[in-house]
Design brief:
By secondary structure, this protein is of the alpha/beta class.
Length: 338
């Protein structure tokens, strides 16, 4: 079940609360360059300009950036490139890193954060001999934002610490991001441009880290894996205009998330921890029945049991506009009351 993802929950006629991708159409300053790039599909894609723009955004040299076909592709490079002797994945989190490591023939140890700690990174039991540690921030599916200082404690010589920041731009100002940190040893940060900009079908992400580590990943990446339209999107999304708009979107998202959390609380459904991203995690009695009943009433939500550390009573809910959230909570209340 590690390869089960939220898109498998959606179907025609259902309101999509299962996929954590912003549903509003991308702005014209983003779609315009992507459309214009179609005139150049006869050439092999050249990532140099987009790589330089992403590097400049994060205050790094271009050699510390690797563009990938979405953040998910970056995870497939970890095993072949790093060949870890003792890999640890901190759960609950996005399951693709563990799935990719297993596929490449590497055993994976799990460190599961506790519900009693609100799934926060409190004294995680990471083995000292772990030479690869993977965690998310903010974490999918818990929506927990870990302090950068706590993540930094995991980094040490002889260890690669991979931080999945696919949802970092959903937090206003990205206060706990390590994307621009060039001091921590062995730190790799993986980012995505698909969530905020609604580009899941285009597949564009990137890795940031020390040039020697990034070069090892690059050696195992497929040739021309990032398409010309995706490169055009990366270039546009690295602009100051895009960064400013990201913050505006994240601020509106925060207000919509607060509305959803408060509506759930009034319905007697608390959310896990202190959510910080574009989704919240709830626990309900008889979660499988509730999930199916919600589908029958027009709402698709993300099941929780495919995430290590969770079970079928956990459901992940994407944050949408307030009217959609109100309609969902009204149906959820009816299902729980029935």
């Amino acid at each position: 079940m590690l390869r089960f993802h939220g898109d498998a929950e959606i179907a025609p006629g259902l309101v999509d609360l299962a996929v954590n991708v912003r549903q509003e159409a991308p702005p014209s300053w983003l779609t315009g360059p992507v459309a214009a790039s179609l005139a150049h599909l006869g050439r092999y894609p050249d990532p140099a300009e987009a790589t330089a723009a992403i590097a400049a955004r994060h205050g790094r040299p271009a050699g510390e950036v690797l563009l990938t076909a979405g953040a998910a592709q970056a995870f497939t490079l970890l095993g072949p490139a790093l060949r870890p002797r003792r890999a640890v994945v901190v759960h609950p989190q996005f399951t693709e890193p563990e799935a990719a490591l297993l596929t490449s023939g590497h055993a994976v140890e799990r460190v599961v954060l506790r519900e009693s700690d609100d799934f926060r990174l409190i004294n995680p039991e990471i083995p000292d001999t772990a030479d690869l540690v993977v965690l998310g921030n903010p974490t999918n599916p818990t929506s927990v934002l870990h302090p950068a200082a706590e993540i930094a404690k995991l980094a040490r010589p002889g260890r690669v610490t991979v931080v999945d920041e696919a949802f970092a731009d959903t937090v206003p100002g990205e206060p706990e991001s390590l994307a621009s940190n060039r001091e921590l040893p062995g730190l790799l940060v993986i980012r995505s441009l698909t969530k905020t900009w609604g580009l899941a079908g285009l597949r564009i992400g990137y890795v940031l880290g020390p040039a020697p580590l990034v070069d090892r990943l690059r050696e195992h990446a497929p040739l021309w894996s990032v398409s010309t339209p995706a490169l055009a999107a990366a270039l546009a999304c690295a602009s100051p205009r895009a960064v400013d708009m990201e913050r505006e979107i994240a601020t509106r998202l925060m207000a919509d998330r607060t509305h959803l959390v408060e509506a759930l609380a009034r319905a007697g459904v608390p959310v896990a921890g202190r959510p910080a991203s574009s989704f919240v995690l709830i626990r309900v009695p008889d979660g499988e029945r509730v999930r199916v009943a919600l589908r029958e009433r027009g709402f698709a939500v993300r099941r929780g049991e495919t995430f290590p550390g969770l079970g079928p009573d956990w459901l992940r809910i994407a944050v949408r506009d307030t009217a959609t959230s109100d309609a969902f909570v009204a149906v959820l209340s009816n299902v729980l009351g029935g």
